[in-house]
Amino acid sequence: MCAVVGIFGNTDAAKLAVAALFQMQHRGHESSGITSSGEGSDGKMVTVKDGGFVRDIFDKERMLLLKGDMAIGHNRYSTAGSESLFDAQPIQARCNFGDISIVHNGNLINKDEVRNQLIEDGSIFQTNMDTENVIHLIAKSKQVRLRDKIKDALDVIKGAYSFIIQSNDKQYVIRDKHGIRPLSIGKIKSGGWVIASETCCFDLLDAEFVRDVRPGEMLVFTKDVIEPESIQLYEPDFHPCAFEFVYLARPDSDIAGVNVYQCRETMGRKLALANPVDADMVVPVPDSGVAAALGYARESGVPFELGIIRNHYVGRTFIEPSQAIRDMKVKMKLSPQRSLIKGKKLVVIDDSLVRGTTSKRIVKMLKDAGAAEVHFRVAAPEIKFPDVYGIDTPTKEELISANMTKDEVCAFLEADSLEYLSIEDLVDSIGCSENYSLVSFDGNYFVK
Amino acid sequence: MCAVVGIFGNTDAAKLAVAALFQMQHRGHESSGITSSGEGSDGKMVTVKDGGFVRDIFDKERMLLLKGDMAIGHNRYSTAGSESLFDAQPIQARCNFGDISIVHNGNLINKDEVRNQLIEDGSIFQTNMDTENVIHLIAKSKQVRLRDKIKDALDVIKGAYSFIIQSNDKQYVIRDKHGIRPLSIGKIKSGGWVIASETCCFDLLDAEFVRDVRPGEMLVFTKDVIEPESIQLYEPDFHPCAFEFVYLARPDSDIAGVNVYQCRETMGRKLALANPVDADMVVPVPDSGVAAALGYARESGVPFELGIIRNHYVGRTFIEPSQAIRDMKVKMKLSPQRSLIKGKKLVVIDDSLVRGTTSKRIVKMLKDAGAAEVHFRVAAPEIKFPDVYGIDTPTKEELISANMTKDEVCAFLEADSLEYLSIEDLVDSIGCSENYSLVSFDGNYFVK
Amino acid sequence: MCAVVGIFGNTDAAKLAVAALFQMQHRGHESSGITSSGEGSDGKMVTVKDGGFVRDIFDKERMLLLKGDMAIGHNRYSTAGSESLFDAQPIQARCNFGDISIVHNGNLINKDEVRNQLIEDGSIFQTNMDTENVIHLIAKSKQVRLRDKIKDALDVIKGAYSFIIQSNDKQYVIRDKHGIRPLSIGKIKSGGWVIASETCCFDLLDAEFVRDVRPGEMLVFTKDVIEPESIQLYEPDFHPCAFEFVYLARPDSDIAGVNVYQCRETMGRKLALANPVDADMVVPVPDSGVAAALGYARESGVPFELGIIRNHYVGRTFIEPSQAIRDMKVKMKLSPQRSLIKGKKLVVIDDSLVRGTTSKRIVKMLKDAGAAEVHFRVAAPEIKFPDVYGIDTPTKEELISANMTKDEVCAFLEADSLEYLSIEDLVDSIGCSENYSLVSFDGNYFVK
Amino acid sequence: MCAVVGIFGNTDAAKLAVAALFQMQHRGHESSGITSSGEGSDGKMVTVKDGGFVRDIFDKERMLLLKGDMAIGHNRYSTAGSESLFDAQPIQARCNFGDISIVHNGNLINKDEVRNQLIEDGSIFQTNMDTENVIHLIAKSKQVRLRDKIKDALDVIKGAYSFIIQSNDKQYVIRDKHGIRPLSIGKIKSGGWVIASETCCFDLLDAEFVRDVRPGEMLVFTKDVIEPESIQLYEPDFHPCAFEFVYLARPDSDIAGVNVYQCRETMGRKLALANPVDADMVVPVPDSGVAAALGYARESGVPFELGIIRNHYVGRTFIEPSQAIRDMKVKMKLSPQRSLIKGKKLVVIDDSLVRGTTSKRIVKMLKDAGAAEVHFRVAAPEIKFPDVYGIDTPTKEELISANMTKDEVCAFLEADSLEYLSIEDLVDSIGCSENYSLVSFDGNYFVK
After folding, report:
1. pTM, entire model
2. Which chain D residues have a beta carbon less than 8 Å from that of C254?
3. CA–CA separation, A438 vs A423, rounded Å?
4. For labelling alongside D173, which of A281, C352, D226, D263 has CA 20 to 30 A away?
5. Domain count along chain B
6. Are residues A222 and A285 in the same domain?
């Protein structure tokens, strides 16, 4: 899923980039990286990247390397892939016009064709990332100005992308014409600009939200120019990803002018209206289901209760499987509120239902703890299609709703009932007039 | 504050102890340790202890050392103290009757007198922990049976204590006559017993709650004896610590038959009844204020909203202070829900107010984010006295309510109003007839 | 300086490669890496590389990733350079003909021209290593067979190189026509072949020396073909590097049929013959000067004594500079044999004299310990020119003999006398009829 | 075997202690520790100790804790024992007269009796180290002055000991009346004193050797008193350990006025005189056999050659056993000089022969590499008895010479001949008139 950030025109650029990546850690914690350059860097572009959490990667020693008043950063979501190559971002490269570095949130659907053509023409690839395609395309462009080279590259690729590209003195920000992945601009009070996947990082940076990057827009940040230059590269055809609202974004982010928390609360309300149930309490799966559960409780009048407690100390599973401890992975993270739920009829709210295995364990855990009934309500429509625009959904074979009817899923979960948010209610909840990308729900792969 | 656990009669004893310590990590993460012995240990008592989180300390290699069907474990709360001695528990020692190991939750108020007398008599101390006193006293007893030696030692010490003491074939569990710190017994489905500071760990161990250890009771677990032997060492004079309900325990624990989550919800309700305010929303300080905020919202009819979002990836602060990022420590952990709270009147609920510095930063953060009014409500009475029975409250100089009136504190916080739960409402909320230890609130140091 | 190894046709390929890199650690310990592929790898080429020592990099978990019956490996010598890019080898890349990986020992003198031309043509570079040029050149070749593509690439580059290139089913080994850097072939008793920079690793692998790779030769190892195919790509013009004998190679290696240890012993003898001195003992700088000191002692009749003891536990310097400990860096590594040398006239033998700073500290240390006289003898000629063929000598400014006469250097060292091996004696010591590369001594940069 | 160091009266006390421990790393690298106190420590005695190498334990952060102008330190030799208790030194304890800390090199032969008596009397033990006995005895003494308390404790214990004991303002140094383990005094040029197990650390500290601590002597270092006070506690009965000369000490140390390196050289000469052999070269097992081999070569006229090369990068064995690599553990450390020894008759010299397994592998390695004959010569007598005075020799069952005749051992090694140094020649080599402790050779356990 990934997060990108760019800081321009602040002497603490790398530090601010780390803070922003830290706030966007929920979008990926396989690896993180930062490239710095600009004034104060002695003309030297430097990239630090490694596997793990932001808080562990950027220690004092490494921060000393990241000089300059410009920085771009990236969090990478864990995906199954080759461990042999260094698939972390940014990708920094020396090209015919100098050093550049690039970060990318999204997914290029024609990556294999482009890569194969580039390889055919003699390019070599040192990573498995589609982002490497873009650098090759930029380097091969015959244009003179970097902005035009980038435009040449963008003309070749298809898919979802939010790019930030950094040279030794400029930053280029580009969002695809559908605006599938979010990308927002903030003004930092201590100086300069921040561009980030989510607005939730602005508060920590003491930055003020300015606006979203427009679909199809390129922004060029140049030293000594107060406002970034805006170039509308492509006619906008806005299809922001509905999944950001459902699951991916942090509740304190605003996307396309809509607050994610409030949007989820509305989803919960609509879920209650369409799928009422006679119950004693509404229980969220923490933390993902909390906002929708609040809405469900309000609309239905059934009390909201923290019937499941989340343990925040979970790291890697450290104890070897033992016969004495079953379902340990889920139970180490979630604990039932036994005294509260015993003999009670529960409406359990989660934000989505993908494979169904964790949900099944939650139902069992609650019933083992004495719940009389467990009614599962999902604050999203059935996920029947894999996403290809930058969200890591599993293959169709693993998507439970692609392979079972609602009733079959309910039986699999051993829940007393199961209902989903309708696609209409999802769209209404987001509530602005755009043609949302609903690809996981309706299979309409509109970027071709 | 610390947590203790004992596992008796399960071949996975050490693994289960780790799981229990993991669930009780909120009671302390300065250091953790486990001692194992019993059948399967080749007669060898082994202790592993180290600084840090449970998940990091007990790796595969170390778990291999912890053999046997008995184990005791301890989480230690971070306290200011000498770094030169190894102040982690369990303390294992070779005595005249063999090896023992001990874990302790509580605080001995006559520790200095006892230690000085022991030192006077020629004992040496290798740690700064009052627990070391107890081993010396046991070793010096002229009694024959270990249980009688332990009784001799207990007759000397005063204060709050939940001890678990392990020999090569028995486990002794003792709770002081006031039952100040909690201690509960569970039966593990895969075999044997668990004794733990909090019942919240029972679910992960697949253990069933049996009962609390009684004030003044000693339990002796012996191999091949089905039920532990119970010895009432002292006349009970039950004064469980009210602070466990207010702050310390996990919401999914039951203490003295009372569910902590529900107790906190009631505190919130009583706080609302006594201190109503005209507001747009009730906002908990996450996660500590959530249960009380739910109660407050229900009683007052003011909507409950997650107006502050908590970042769960916080580790050590990794970036050096930078002019560009003020109040970073709080802001990295808590973010305001800007869109939600802008122009709104908020009732902010927290579980307690100790030094006041973090609360002040929260008020400022919410006002900076546009809140029209911030009314602070504390789901506990004013903390005017240091605790001496095992809770790490700061000195009187640092307790804001020991040095300022309510109005002065309100001005310090720059809040629009400030109210606390009354002592009566606190006692009513817990709702059972015991004489609670309210020492932090009323200064009644009843153990002398 | 670097070391390369290739293992072909052994199911333990990666393990054997680690063992060989371990034996060649003296050629570089900035970083190490291994690429594995071939039968047993599920068609997946995997590279593991990291900074540090071989013993630390290749842990159990990483070894599990390195499957297959072919492996190439590399040790990198520490050089000043950008820390921002991942300058470790092997470099693995996806090309138009599939995956390849490459390791390189040597230095390409036209690397900048080649790189600039490639960049001009739109190639991008993700490392600072000249080796990356070669992959680009191979990928751009219009030839059909990989061996021909490699030949195309070799036709462009100039300099010193020992390459091992691995595809998914073949290994290509190439040594430049001058055979500047050593490269030898061994037959592994448990199966398959080893190619390595130095023969000193053969014993650990239970491999038998077969022969050196010939200057200008390419070897192609193919599955199911018993002997590698040999292709003489270029007319040999053998100029092996004399510096390997002087300093670089391990004493138990044979290069061009000459044993390094015996060669150094001869250098010491010739040094004694040409530069006798009236002394009480011959003292080697350990371990580099030991073999030459043995020869000097034998020829001169002056007794050989370990007058300087080396501490083998040295790691990174761990204590901050303190006024109390001067010259700590040298003194932690080397200690004078005070009782032995007190009042004695010493001939101190080292293998070479580059900057002179360490030698100066050694002379001081010996005099402080009571030596009556210190006569410095260097078992190599004066180093007046930077090497450009793969040995990391400093710039001309830092080479003491490029800037001072012998007498001036002697005064700088505060030695009682100073003598070097003559170039003629060096050549005679190596003793075979080749035109040695003496570039550091005579400045004859024969590869142009 | 262990090493101790004390620094008194230098503001860099802890740093100097680290440097000294580093120089004495050969005496033990299981764990190391330092206690600091004195002026500049704010009256706070602090101990840092951990497992591993000196260079890794004492990082910057830990050094900051070690304040004050007095420090004692300890390196612990790896011994088989319980991993459950923290068996590292110094042992710091709070006693009735204040804090003390103690380090110990040696072994107390009546430790079990003393410990059992102490335990009987109610003392508890938190380690497995005999050193803990001493603190208990000191603490129990009824004397007033610490020096008298220490004397009381010494009157109880028997065995070999070099102690350094530190209070908050004094350092007490004691060597047993037999002076079994070495202990020397140096004057630090930058101020204050160093006491250390071996003089080899003095050079790095810029300290001048003053004299050895006398057998039965106590030295008391007191602030503002220029020279330490010397108290002869016991009548000297000097039996220094011959094994220090044979194996344990670093060659650049002087013990009892004898230089270890020169002593070993003499042993080699005497070995040659008594056991000549017709051979082509004398080959030391590096590094332990080098000095004796030099002597053997000189006396015999057979040339000294480095026929075995040692790899200094060995750490933990990192690769799992593989069929392809036999005897890897020895072969990773030692490599044969194949070209040099092929077809040659070798005299191989090692410093001692304990279990015989490594020697057997060395003989095999040399024969595999083509040696025509391997004559093994040991520069020590046959080790037939376990040491009990502080050297970690294996049990009698494992000592090959306790269980086999010389001829049987020779057959086991598959050597062509085997000879040892005689006890008489050993004593003559050391060459001073003391009654050396020869316990491993003659079984004369003189301390009873």
Report:
1. 0.90
2. 338-339
3. 8
4. D263
5. 2
6. no
| pLDDT grade for C432, boundaries at 50, 70 and 90 | confident
Report the SS3 class of residue D37: strand
Q: What is residue B332's predicted lDDT score, i.e. its pLDDT? A: 83
Tell me, what CATH number does B400's domain have?
3.40.50.2020
Does the distance separating the beta carbons of D325 and C15 come in below 8 Å?
Answer: yes
- D373-378 vs D345-350, strand pairing mode: parallel
Task: Tell me what percent of the residues of chain C surpass a pLDDT of 90.
Answer: 78
- What pLDDT score does B82 carry? 42
Contact D379, D267 (CB under 8 A): yes
Residue at B248 is within a domain? no
Are D126 and B123 an interchain contact pair (Cβ–Cβ within 8 Å)? Answer: no
> CB distance from C88 to chain A under 8 Å?
no
**Best residue in B64, B126, B130 for a mutation probing chain D (most D CBs within 10 Å):** B126
B370 touches chain A (CB under 8 A): no
How many Cα atoms sit within 13 Å of B267 on the Cβ side? 34
Write the single-letter amino acid at D336: P
Distance separating alpha carbons of residues B73 and B207, to the nearest angstrom: 17
Using alpha carbons, select from D9, D60, D14 the residue that is nearest to residue D33: D14
Q: Token digits for D157?
A: 């214990």
Q: What is the mean pLDDT of residues B95-115?
A: 94
Question: For residue range A42-51, what is the model confidence (pLDDT) as tens digits?
Answer: 999 999 998 8
Q: Which residues of chain D lie closer than 8 angstroms to C336, CB-CB? A: 203, 252
User: DSSP letter string over D290-333?
Assistant: HHHHHHHHHHH-PPB---EEE-TT--S--S--BTTBTTHHHHHH
| pLDDT confidence bin for A433, thresholds 50/70/90 | low
Residues D229 and D301 in one domain: no
Residues D339 and D420 in one domain: yes
D319 domain residue, yes or no: no
Mean pLDDT (whole number) for C205-212? 95
Average pLDDT over residues D175-194: 96
Q: What is the mean pLDDT of residues D164-178?
A: 97
D-chain CB neighbours of B82 within 8 Å are 44, 46
- Name which of A429-433, C14-18, C84-88 the model is least confident about: C84-88
Taking only residues 188 to 217 of chain C, the set having a beta carbon closer than 8 angstroms to any beta carbon of chain D reads: 188, 190-191, 200, 203-206
- Is B318 within 8 Å of A55 when comparing Cβ atoms? yes
End-to-end CA gap in chain D: 20
Q: Are C207 and C307 part of one and the same domain?
A: no
In a domain, residue A299? The reply is: yes
Contact list, B68 vs chain D (CB under 8 Å): none
End-to-end CA distance of chain A: 20
Q: Is the ipTM of this complex over 0.85?
A: yes
CATH number at residue C180: 3.60.20.10
B156 and B299 inside one domain: no
Residue A441 lies in a domain: no
* Alpha-carbon separation of residue A349 from A137, A295, A354, A399, A418 (angstroms): 46, 10, 14, 19, 10
Same domain, B288 and B188: no
Which of D238, D271, D295 terminates a domain? The answer is: D238
The answer to whether residues B215 and B363 belong to one domain is: no
Q: Check residue D317 and give its pLDDT.
A: 46
Residue D195: pLDDT above 70? yes
Instruction: Domain of residue D85: give its range.
Output: 3-238
Rounded mean pLDDT, B93-120: 94
- A106: nearest Cα among A28, A185, A188, A180: A180
Q: Look at the block and give the residue holding tokens 């004050």.
A: D68
DSSP string for residues in A376-402: EEESS----S---SS-----TTT-HHH
Cβ–Cβ below 8 Å for D190 and C328: no
Determine the Cα–Cα distance for residues C221 and B28; give it in Å rounded to an integer: 60
CB atoms within 10 A of CB D377: 28
Residues A327 and A180 in one domain: no
